[in-house]
Automatic annotation (TrEMBL):
Gene3D superfamilies to which the protein is assigned, alphabetical: Medium-chain alcohol dehydrogenases, catalytic domain, NAD(P)-binding Rossmann-like Domain
Lineage of source species: Bacteria, Bacillati, Actinomycetota, Actinomycetes, Propionibacteriales
Annotated keywords: NADP
Name this protein carries in UniProt: NADPH2:quinone reductase
Residue ranges of every copy of the Enoyl reductase (ER) domain listed in the record: 10-333
Organism: Nocardioides lianchengensis
Length: 338
Protein backbone atom coordinates (compact mmCIF):
# COMPACT_ATOMS: atom_id res chain seq x y z
CA UNK A 1 0.00 0.00 0.00
CA UNK A 2 1.04 3.60 -0.51
CA UNK A 3 1.74 5.62 2.61
CA UNK A 4 3.49 8.84 3.55
CA UNK A 5 5.82 8.43 6.52
CA UNK A 6 8.73 10.05 8.32
CA UNK A 7 11.62 8.49 10.23
CA UNK A 8 13.03 11.72 11.61
CA UNK A 9 11.27 14.77 12.96
CA UNK A 10 11.49 18.28 11.64
CA UNK A 11 10.26 20.28 8.64
CA UNK A 12 7.63 18.81 6.32
CA UNK A 13 10.46 17.85 3.96
CA UNK A 14 11.04 14.76 6.15
CA UNK A 15 7.80 13.23 4.77
CA UNK A 16 8.33 10.49 2.19
CA UNK A 17 5.95 8.56 -0.08
CA UNK A 18 6.68 4.87 0.46
CA UNK A 19 5.24 1.44 -0.27
CA UNK A 20 4.47 -0.76 2.73
CA UNK A 21 2.80 -4.12 3.29
CA UNK A 22 -0.94 -3.88 3.79
CA UNK A 23 -1.58 -4.44 7.52
CA UNK A 24 -3.89 -7.14 8.86
CA UNK A 25 -6.32 -6.52 11.72
CA UNK A 26 -5.81 -8.30 15.02
CA UNK A 27 -8.16 -9.06 17.88
CA UNK A 28 -10.77 -6.32 18.25
CA UNK A 29 -9.48 -4.42 15.21
CA UNK A 30 -10.71 -3.54 11.73
CA UNK A 31 -8.86 -2.47 8.63
CA UNK A 32 -10.13 0.64 6.87
CA UNK A 33 -9.45 1.49 3.24
CA UNK A 34 -9.14 5.22 3.54
CA UNK A 35 -10.73 7.51 1.01
CA UNK A 36 -10.06 10.80 2.71
CA UNK A 37 -7.83 11.96 5.57
CA UNK A 38 -8.11 15.13 7.61
CA UNK A 39 -5.07 17.19 8.60
CA UNK A 40 -4.98 19.01 11.94
CA UNK A 41 -2.42 21.18 13.74
CA UNK A 42 -1.59 18.24 15.99
CA UNK A 43 -0.24 16.37 12.94
CA UNK A 44 2.47 18.84 12.02
CA UNK A 45 3.25 19.50 15.69
CA UNK A 46 3.82 15.78 16.29
CA UNK A 47 6.00 15.64 13.19
CA UNK A 48 8.01 18.75 14.08
CA UNK A 49 8.43 18.08 17.80
CA UNK A 50 8.91 14.34 17.97
CA UNK A 51 5.85 13.44 20.05
CA UNK A 52 5.41 10.09 18.33
CA UNK A 53 6.32 7.38 20.80
CA UNK A 54 8.89 4.61 20.27
CA UNK A 55 8.47 4.20 16.52
CA UNK A 56 11.21 4.20 13.90
CA UNK A 57 8.65 5.20 11.27
CA UNK A 58 5.36 7.09 11.53
CA UNK A 59 2.53 7.58 9.06
CA UNK A 60 0.85 10.64 10.57
CA UNK A 61 -2.82 11.58 10.73
CA UNK A 62 -5.47 11.21 13.42
CA UNK A 63 -8.61 11.66 11.29
CA UNK A 64 -9.95 9.91 8.23
CA UNK A 65 -12.92 8.29 6.53
CA UNK A 66 -13.30 5.26 4.34
CA UNK A 67 -14.61 1.71 4.08
CA UNK A 68 -13.90 -1.32 6.26
CA UNK A 69 -12.31 -4.04 4.11
CA UNK A 70 -11.22 -6.55 6.77
CA UNK A 71 -12.47 -7.45 10.24
CA UNK A 72 -10.36 -9.05 12.95
CA UNK A 73 -11.43 -11.68 15.50
CA UNK A 74 -13.79 -10.65 18.27
CA UNK A 75 -15.27 -7.67 16.45
CA UNK A 76 -19.02 -7.04 16.74
CA UNK A 77 -21.03 -4.25 15.16
CA UNK A 78 -18.80 -3.74 12.12
CA UNK A 79 -18.59 -5.59 8.82
CA UNK A 80 -16.74 -5.39 5.53
CA UNK A 81 -18.22 -2.65 3.38
CA UNK A 82 -19.25 -0.39 6.27
CA UNK A 83 -18.55 3.30 5.71
CA UNK A 84 -16.77 4.74 8.76
CA UNK A 85 -14.83 7.64 10.16
CA UNK A 86 -11.84 7.21 12.47
CA UNK A 87 -10.39 9.30 15.24
CA UNK A 88 -7.10 9.29 17.18
CA UNK A 89 -5.75 6.90 14.54
CA UNK A 90 -2.07 7.63 15.17
CA UNK A 91 -2.30 8.05 18.95
CA UNK A 92 -0.04 5.40 20.44
CA UNK A 93 0.42 3.73 17.03
CA UNK A 94 2.74 4.15 14.09
CA UNK A 95 0.12 3.93 11.34
CA UNK A 96 -2.29 6.83 11.14
CA UNK A 97 -4.38 8.01 8.20
CA UNK A 98 -1.67 9.09 5.73
CA UNK A 99 -1.91 5.69 4.07
CA UNK A 100 -4.23 3.75 1.81
CA UNK A 101 -5.11 1.43 4.71
CA UNK A 102 -5.06 1.76 8.47
CA UNK A 103 -5.78 -0.83 11.16
CA UNK A 104 -7.62 0.49 14.20
CA UNK A 105 -9.26 -0.84 17.36
CA UNK A 106 -13.03 -0.63 17.07
CA UNK A 107 -13.11 2.03 19.81
CA UNK A 108 -11.57 4.44 17.31
CA UNK A 109 -13.93 3.61 14.44
CA UNK A 110 -17.39 5.14 14.06
CA UNK A 111 -20.11 4.41 11.52
CA UNK A 112 -20.48 7.24 9.01
CA UNK A 113 -24.14 8.28 8.92
CA UNK A 114 -26.13 7.68 5.74
CA UNK A 115 -25.69 10.55 3.30
CA UNK A 116 -22.58 11.95 4.96
CA UNK A 117 -19.64 12.46 2.61
CA UNK A 118 -16.12 11.21 3.15
CA UNK A 119 -15.06 14.87 3.23
CA UNK A 120 -17.29 15.40 6.25
CA UNK A 121 -16.24 12.13 7.87
CA UNK A 122 -12.56 13.04 7.65
CA UNK A 123 -13.33 16.45 9.17
CA UNK A 124 -15.03 15.20 12.32
CA UNK A 125 -12.45 13.63 14.64
CA UNK A 126 -10.20 16.24 16.24
CA UNK A 127 -12.37 19.33 15.59
CA UNK A 128 -15.81 17.93 16.40
CA UNK A 129 -14.82 15.78 19.38
CA UNK A 130 -12.79 18.65 20.86
CA UNK A 131 -15.74 21.00 20.36
CA UNK A 132 -18.11 18.50 21.97
CA UNK A 133 -15.96 18.20 25.09
CA UNK A 134 -15.64 21.97 25.33
CA UNK A 135 -19.40 22.45 25.14
CA UNK A 136 -20.06 19.78 27.78
CA UNK A 137 -17.28 20.84 30.17
CA UNK A 138 -19.46 23.07 32.36
CA UNK A 139 -21.83 22.09 35.15
CA UNK A 140 -25.02 22.46 33.12
CA UNK A 141 -24.75 20.16 30.08
CA UNK A 142 -23.15 16.70 29.82
CA UNK A 143 -24.60 15.56 26.48
CA UNK A 144 -25.61 17.45 23.35
CA UNK A 145 -28.97 17.14 21.64
CA UNK A 146 -31.54 19.56 20.21
CA UNK A 147 -32.56 21.87 23.06
CA UNK A 148 -29.85 20.70 25.50
CA UNK A 149 -28.34 24.21 25.59
CA UNK A 150 -31.58 26.16 25.26
CA UNK A 151 -31.36 29.47 27.11
CA UNK A 152 -27.55 29.40 27.23
CA UNK A 153 -25.09 31.72 25.50
CA UNK A 154 -21.77 30.37 24.26
CA UNK A 155 -18.81 32.51 23.27
CA UNK A 156 -16.48 30.79 20.78
CA UNK A 157 -13.04 32.35 20.50
CA UNK A 158 -11.66 32.03 16.99
CA UNK A 159 -14.91 30.98 15.36
CA UNK A 160 -13.33 30.63 11.92
CA UNK A 161 -11.00 27.83 13.03
CA UNK A 162 -11.85 24.15 12.64
CA UNK A 163 -12.68 23.55 16.31
CA UNK A 164 -14.38 26.92 16.60
CA UNK A 165 -16.53 26.19 13.57
CA UNK A 166 -17.54 22.79 14.94
CA UNK A 167 -18.33 24.35 18.31
CA UNK A 168 -20.57 26.94 16.65
CA UNK A 169 -22.45 24.30 14.67
CA UNK A 170 -22.88 21.94 17.62
CA UNK A 171 -23.91 24.70 20.05
CA UNK A 172 -26.41 26.10 17.58
CA UNK A 173 -27.85 22.59 17.05
CA UNK A 174 -28.17 22.19 20.82
CA UNK A 175 -30.18 25.42 21.05
CA UNK A 176 -27.61 27.91 22.37
CA UNK A 177 -27.18 31.51 21.36
CA UNK A 178 -23.70 31.64 19.86
CA UNK A 179 -21.34 34.60 19.87
CA UNK A 180 -17.85 34.47 18.43
CA UNK A 181 -14.73 36.60 18.36
CA UNK A 182 -12.93 36.95 15.04
CA UNK A 183 -10.17 39.10 13.54
CA UNK A 184 -11.56 40.10 10.13
CA UNK A 185 -14.72 40.55 8.10
CA UNK A 186 -13.79 37.45 6.05
CA UNK A 187 -13.66 35.31 9.18
CA UNK A 188 -16.85 36.88 10.49
CA UNK A 189 -18.63 35.73 7.33
CA UNK A 190 -17.35 32.18 7.86
CA UNK A 191 -18.50 32.15 11.49
CA UNK A 192 -21.95 33.42 10.55
CA UNK A 193 -22.18 30.78 7.83
CA UNK A 194 -21.42 28.18 10.50
CA UNK A 195 -24.36 29.48 12.53
CA UNK A 196 -23.02 32.16 14.87
CA UNK A 197 -25.71 34.66 15.83
CA UNK A 198 -23.25 37.52 16.30
CA UNK A 199 -19.53 38.09 15.76
CA UNK A 200 -17.21 40.54 17.48
CA UNK A 201 -14.01 41.75 15.85
CA UNK A 202 -11.55 41.84 18.75
CA UNK A 203 -9.26 44.14 16.80
CA UNK A 204 -11.87 46.91 16.57
CA UNK A 205 -12.97 48.83 19.65
CA UNK A 206 -13.48 47.19 23.05
CA UNK A 207 -14.48 43.53 22.66
CA UNK A 208 -15.57 43.27 26.32
CA UNK A 209 -17.99 46.13 25.88
CA UNK A 210 -19.26 44.67 22.61
CA UNK A 211 -19.89 41.24 24.16
CA UNK A 212 -21.54 42.75 27.24
CA UNK A 213 -23.83 44.74 24.97
CA UNK A 214 -24.85 41.57 23.16
CA UNK A 215 -25.18 39.53 26.39
CA UNK A 216 -25.64 41.83 29.42
CA UNK A 217 -26.27 38.93 31.80
CA UNK A 218 -22.96 37.28 30.87
CA UNK A 219 -22.15 34.27 28.73
CA UNK A 220 -22.47 30.75 30.15
CA UNK A 221 -19.47 29.15 28.49
CA UNK A 222 -16.36 30.21 26.59
CA UNK A 223 -14.71 27.84 24.10
CA UNK A 224 -11.16 29.16 24.19
CA UNK A 225 -8.22 28.66 21.83
CA UNK A 226 -5.89 31.33 23.27
CA UNK A 227 -6.22 31.33 27.05
CA UNK A 228 -3.06 33.38 27.70
CA UNK A 229 -4.32 36.21 25.51
CA UNK A 230 -8.01 36.09 26.35
CA UNK A 231 -8.35 34.99 29.97
CA UNK A 232 -8.96 38.50 31.32
CA UNK A 233 -11.63 39.12 28.66
CA UNK A 234 -13.27 35.76 29.35
CA UNK A 235 -13.50 36.45 33.08
CA UNK A 236 -15.09 39.83 32.41
CA UNK A 237 -17.84 38.51 30.14
CA UNK A 238 -18.73 35.24 31.91
CA UNK A 239 -21.73 34.97 34.20
CA UNK A 240 -21.52 33.63 37.73
CA UNK A 241 -20.65 29.88 37.70
CA UNK A 242 -19.62 30.04 34.06
CA UNK A 243 -16.90 27.92 32.43
CA UNK A 244 -13.84 28.51 30.27
CA UNK A 245 -13.05 25.35 28.27
CA UNK A 246 -9.61 25.70 26.66
CA UNK A 247 -8.01 23.29 24.22
CA UNK A 248 -4.88 24.98 22.84
CA UNK A 249 -2.05 27.29 23.82
CA UNK A 250 -2.25 29.69 20.90
CA UNK A 251 -0.82 33.06 21.87
CA UNK A 252 1.21 31.79 24.82
CA UNK A 253 1.93 28.74 26.94
CA UNK A 254 1.28 30.39 30.31
CA UNK A 255 -1.69 32.42 31.53
CA UNK A 256 -2.05 34.77 34.48
CA UNK A 257 -5.23 34.02 36.39
CA UNK A 258 -7.12 36.96 37.92
CA UNK A 259 -7.65 35.21 41.24
CA UNK A 260 -10.36 37.40 42.74
CA UNK A 261 -12.17 37.72 39.43
CA UNK A 262 -12.41 33.95 39.02
CA UNK A 263 -13.34 32.99 42.56
CA UNK A 264 -15.77 35.89 42.97
CA UNK A 265 -17.79 34.49 40.05
CA UNK A 266 -17.28 30.83 40.98
CA UNK A 267 -15.75 30.26 37.56
CA UNK A 268 -14.47 26.95 36.25
CA UNK A 269 -11.36 26.63 34.05
CA UNK A 270 -11.49 23.31 32.21
CA UNK A 271 -8.56 22.18 30.10
CA UNK A 272 -9.09 19.44 27.54
CA UNK A 273 -7.03 17.23 25.27
CA UNK A 274 -8.42 14.41 23.14
CA UNK A 275 -5.62 11.96 23.85
CA UNK A 276 -6.41 11.85 27.58
CA UNK A 277 -10.19 12.31 27.54
CA UNK A 278 -11.01 8.73 28.41
CA UNK A 279 -13.28 6.18 26.77
CA UNK A 280 -16.50 7.46 28.38
CA UNK A 281 -16.15 11.02 27.07
CA UNK A 282 -14.98 9.85 23.64
CA UNK A 283 -18.00 7.56 23.31
CA UNK A 284 -20.42 10.31 24.37
CA UNK A 285 -18.83 12.67 21.86
CA UNK A 286 -18.98 10.27 18.91
CA UNK A 287 -22.63 9.44 19.63
CA UNK A 288 -23.64 13.11 19.81
CA UNK A 289 -21.51 14.11 16.82
CA UNK A 290 -23.10 11.37 14.72
CA UNK A 291 -26.56 12.52 15.81
CA UNK A 292 -25.70 16.06 14.72
CA UNK A 293 -24.40 14.79 11.37
CA UNK A 294 -27.56 12.72 10.83
CA UNK A 295 -29.67 15.82 11.55
CA UNK A 296 -27.71 17.90 9.06
CA UNK A 297 -26.35 20.12 11.83
CA UNK A 298 -22.65 19.43 11.21
CA UNK A 299 -21.49 20.26 7.72
CA UNK A 300 -18.39 21.26 5.76
CA UNK A 301 -17.94 23.38 2.65
CA UNK A 302 -18.24 27.06 1.83
CA UNK A 303 -21.89 27.28 2.85
CA UNK A 304 -21.01 25.94 6.31
CA UNK A 305 -18.10 28.35 6.77
CA UNK A 306 -15.56 25.56 6.20
CA UNK A 307 -13.81 25.97 2.83
CA UNK A 308 -12.21 22.68 1.79
CA UNK A 309 -8.63 22.40 0.53
CA UNK A 310 -7.76 19.08 -1.12
CA UNK A 311 -4.24 17.68 -1.51
CA UNK A 312 -3.16 14.36 -3.06
CA UNK A 313 -1.54 11.84 -0.73
CA UNK A 314 1.84 12.35 -2.36
CA UNK A 315 1.70 16.04 -1.37
CA UNK A 316 1.04 15.49 2.32
CA UNK A 317 3.89 17.92 2.97
CA UNK A 318 1.90 20.64 1.22
CA UNK A 319 -1.13 19.77 3.33
CA UNK A 320 0.91 19.98 6.55
CA UNK A 321 2.39 23.31 5.45
CA UNK A 322 -1.06 24.71 4.67
CA UNK A 323 -2.31 23.89 8.16
CA UNK A 324 0.84 25.19 9.82
CA UNK A 325 0.51 28.45 7.88
CA UNK A 326 -3.06 28.93 9.10
CA UNK A 327 -5.21 27.83 6.16
CA UNK A 328 -8.79 28.92 6.81
CA UNK A 329 -11.16 25.99 6.48
CA UNK A 330 -10.38 22.28 6.41
CA UNK A 331 -7.35 20.67 4.79
CA UNK A 332 -8.09 17.19 3.41
CA UNK A 333 -5.96 14.53 1.74
CA UNK A 334 -7.37 12.49 -1.13
CA UNK A 335 -6.07 9.03 -0.30
CA UNK A 336 -7.95 6.82 -2.75
CA UNK A 337 -10.96 6.77 -5.03
CA UNK A 338 -14.42 6.61 -3.51
Amino acid sequence: MRAVTYSETGHSSVLRLVDRDRPEPGEGEVRVRLVRAGVNPTDWKFRANGMNGPYDEVAPGQDGAGVIDAVGPGVAGFAEGDRVWVLLAQSGRWLGTAAEHTVQPVERVVHLPVGASYDLGASLGVPAVTAHRALTAGEDVTRLSPGAMSGMTVLVAGGAGAVGNAAIQLARWAGATVLTTISSDEKAALAVAAGAHQSVNYRVGDPVEAIRTLCPEGVDLVVEVALAQNLALDVEVLRNRGTIAYYADNGGSEATVPVRGTFAKNLRLQGLLLYTLGADLLEAATLDVNAAVSNGALRVGDDAGVPLHHFPLEDLAGAHDAVEQGAVGKVLVDVSEE
